[in-house]
Amino acid sequence: MELLSPRPGIGQIKPYRPARPPEDGAAWVDLSLTVNPLGPGKKALTAYRHMAAQIHRYPDWSQDRLRHAIARRYDLDAGHITCANGSDEMIHLVTQAFAGPGDEVLCHEHGYRGFMKAIRAAGATPVIAAERDLVVDVEAMIDRANEKTKLCFLANPNNPTGTYIPSELVLRLRASLPSHTLLVLDSAYADYCRRDNYSDGTAIVENSDNVLMVRTFSKLHGLAGLRVGWAYGPAGVIEAVNQTRGPFNVGIAAQAAAEAAVGDTEHEEATFAHNSAWLPWLSHELEQLGVRVYPSVCNFILARIPTDPSLGVQAVLDHLARRGILVKPTQDYGLADCLRITVGREDENRALVAALGEILS
Ligand SMILES: Cc1ncc(COP(=O)(O)O)c(C=O)c1O
């Protein structure tokens, strides 16, 4: 009897490794996932609760109100927007729509892991371009592109490095990739990166016919648990994603909460201000403990733990766990001596620094 087996590539997908044991009831200070420490905004919560009596209904397949709310907020054409069950689903959808067996998909060395999963799931072949000092190297990406390259993923800013490249380099990348390659700009952390030389990708989408920008409600808007992501791109690309997605991929309460959240600039500003205050504080305190902190424009930092044969990353993780604190080990990203630490609430940040101080000083 022939054994049932999934498509080649599926077995190469690395399983997701959460920092926390699944059925552990302990009250952790969880700085392992890059969520909003302030939680969701009041407007999103109200809209979500309001929708509770409607959850027997299917959601609006056309995502009309949500797409128009996003379009109003960011001054975009709603006809060029589509939404998904988190930006992770969007990454899968666009990969399925544009790449398959025999095709190559370009990524960068320490790029967001979700890209690899989507590429493998689609049966395509990932091609990884080296980075320079944990920053995307556009020239290395251009060198690896060829006639088989159907997609190129760029997380800008990137998780877990926290670094970004300026818009002029994104333009150079687009101009130098083959025209048959769709450049996918994953701008999950764009809301945190208010730098003059940075762009989320809106302008480049509008001036090209082969660039897609992907955004999320999971970070600044604090809706990670509801799973809402969206994409802005050329009509043909949006249509291909719509043909690939399930008609009801974003739930009714998720659409309502996201619609409210995208108009809640007060919550956005409070979140941004919190991050602007605590990101430098956390970076400074860790540096005082001898930890190398990479310059981050996101809501987390990548920290390289001082190398000492008697003190590995696992010992630091174990110590933090004893203090009830979770952070993200980054060995799956090829960064075995680093930890990704999300900016938390004030009490959480102080607890982390105190616990690290106990083991590092
Ligand atoms: C760079 C990047 N892209 C996409 C995602 C996926 O976010 P979500 O699926 O919650 O929208 C994440 C989540 O951590 C991320 O860091």
UniProtKB/TrEMBL annotation:
Belongs to the class-II pyridoxal-phosphate-dependent aminotransferase family. Histidinol-phosphate aminotransferase subfamily. Homodimer. The modification N6-(pyridoxal phosphate)lysine is found at K219. HAMAP family: HisC_aminotrans_2. It comes from the Bacteria. SUPFAM superfamilies: PLP-dependent transferases (SSF53383). Pathway: Amino-acid biosynthesis; L-histidine biosynthesis; L-histidine from 5-phospho-alpha-D-ribose 1-diphosphate: step 7/9. One of its GO terms (biological process) is L-histidine biosynthetic process. Its EC number is 2.6.1.9. Gene3D superfamilies: Aspartate Aminotransferase, domain 1, Type I PLP-dependent aspartate aminotransferase-like (Major domain). This is Histidinol-phosphate aminotransferase. It catalyses: L-histidinol phosphate + 2-oxoglutarate = 3-(imidazol-4-yl)-2-oxopropyl phosphate + L-glutamate. Keywords: Amino-acid biosynthesis, Aminotransferase, Histidine biosynthesis, Pyridoxal phosphate, Transferase. GO terms for molecular function: histidinol-phosphate transaminase activity; pyridoxal phosphate binding. The keyword Transferase applies. Its cofactor is pyridoxal 5'-phosphate. Residues 43-356 form the Aminotransferase class I/classII large domain.
